[in-house]
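We modelled the chain as a single entity of 59 amino acids. Its sequence is:
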Amino acid sequence: MAKFLMKAILVSAASAAAYKYRYKIMNGVLSVPAVRNLVVSSSMKLPFVRGKMLQNIFE
């Protein structure tokens, strides 16, 4: 019971920290060029994302 409670507290604390610093984490991850290229190319394969991006670009 104590192990479960400790794991639950640790997961909750990690989730709260990740949520609080989500933009700093995202900026750190996306500062790596290979990861950024992978994310952009993957997101552009999704039709609704590509449509929204192209709609905003060519307004």
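As a brief sanity check on the tokenised model: The chain has a mean pLDDT of 92. The CA atoms of residues 14 and 20 lie 10 Å apart.
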